[in-house]
Specification:
The protein is mainly beta. Helix content is 11%, strand content 45%.
Length: 341
């Protein structure tokens, strides 16, 4: 049963699964083809709930760019070869993810807890849209370990706000080259109007392969609002624990003067390897923790798109990722701002 589910997910994200809507350009794509820049921050202290302080996935930062529709010939060729007709964009982003144990004020850290780790990735990819699907394929190259500058960013920011430094960074997971291939598909299924507002469902499937994370993911999102055809839901930081799950991406189009939505969703993941938990792939002396292979999460949030600017807040709750993790759900907040030009 598990193998059958994994096979179905892989077929879906590669575009083999049949889709009656697939060969049609998305609404507004040709007339709203500007490039988009996105700045995103995720943090366990940026939360609508009582936040945590520097534990587990403690910080994510990302700067993203997507080109205008069908403007890049390489993206067009890749998109046409894999998925066929539709609107294609080139995507580029730079992201950093920082992980720490629960207790950051002891040195050395608890050897059973999640280790200190950082990942720095430059990703290059293709976004392919049809009227009701979005496919994303990206190659990430970078470094995982001390060269990802996790210690410098975290303790440097603590110095600015007069917080104590985290004391165990000397024991972080060692350097290794970071290579990541991520693929995902989201389907956009209209559900009709409720009290005059649009509703839709966004089921998704994705996979990540490389020496940063190896995982298969599936999930779904429900939305209510106006102008839902403008995008495919909230964007995520791929190097974070959500990976490719429920990642709607940076690209959007203008279908109404004001578009907005409230959303909520769930995802599940089967994780075979995670650098930030399992340690460096080729080092026997690397810090590591006991990883839980079946993980999941829930998200809820809101998004507003007005005059080419999209602001999205997402609250994320994650299940335990290691055997030593605190019982219950770990939460963090994500804030992104995107501008079309």
């Amino acid at each position: 049963m598990m193998r059958l589910a994994f096979s179905a997910a892989l077929l879906a994200i590669l575009g083999v699964a049949p889709a009656a809507w697939a060969q049609q350009a998305p609404p507004g794509a040709e007339s709203d083809a500007g490039s988009i820049v996105t700045l995103q921050a995720e943090n366990d202290a940026v939360s609508t709930l009582k936040g945590t302080s520097d534990q587990y996935y403690t910080s994510g930062l990302r700067l993203g760019y997507v080109s205008g529709v069908n403007e890049n010939s390489l993206a067009n060729d890749i998109s046409a070869a894999i998925w066929g007709a539709g609107a294609s964009r080139l995507s580029i982003d730079l992201s950093q993810a920082i992980y720490t144990p629960r207790n950051t004020q002891i040195s050395p850290p608890n050897p059973a807890d999640r280790p200190y780790a950082g990942v720095l990735l430059a990703s290059f990819g293709v976004v392919h849209d049809t009227a009701n699907t979005r496919d994303q394929l990206a190659l990430g190259l970078g470094v995982a370990g001390p060269s990802a500058l996790g210690r410098q960013v975290q303790n440097g920011s603590h110095s600015l706000i007069s917080d104590p430094d985290n004391k165990g960074w000397h024991y972080q997971v060692p350097d290794q080259p970071a290579i990541s291939v991520a693929a995902s598909r989201i389907w956009r299924l209209p559900l009709g109007d409720v009290f005059g507002l649009q509703t839709d469902a966004l089921p998704s499937a994705g996979a990540t392969l490389g020496d940063v994370r190896i995982a298969l993911q599936a999930g779904g999102l429900l939305r209510i609002g106006e102008g839902l055809d403008s995008d495919f839901g909230p964007t995520r930081i791929a190097a974070g624990p959500a990976g490719a799950a429920l990642n709607g991406g940076d690209a959007f189009v203008t279908v109404a003067p004001l578009s907005w939505s409230f959303f909520a969703g769930v995802d599940g993941q089967a994780v075979a390897y995670d650098y930030a938990i399992d340690g460096a792939a080729f080092r026997t002396n690397s810090p590591r923790a006991h990883r839980i292979w079946d993980q999941g999460g829930m998200i809820a949030g809101a998004s507003v798109l007005w005059h080419g600017v999209r602001i999205t807040y997402t609250q994320d709750w994650r299940t335990q990722e290691t055997a030593h993790a605190k019982a219950g759900l770990f939460n963090f907040g994500s804030l992104s701002a995107a501008v079309r030009f």
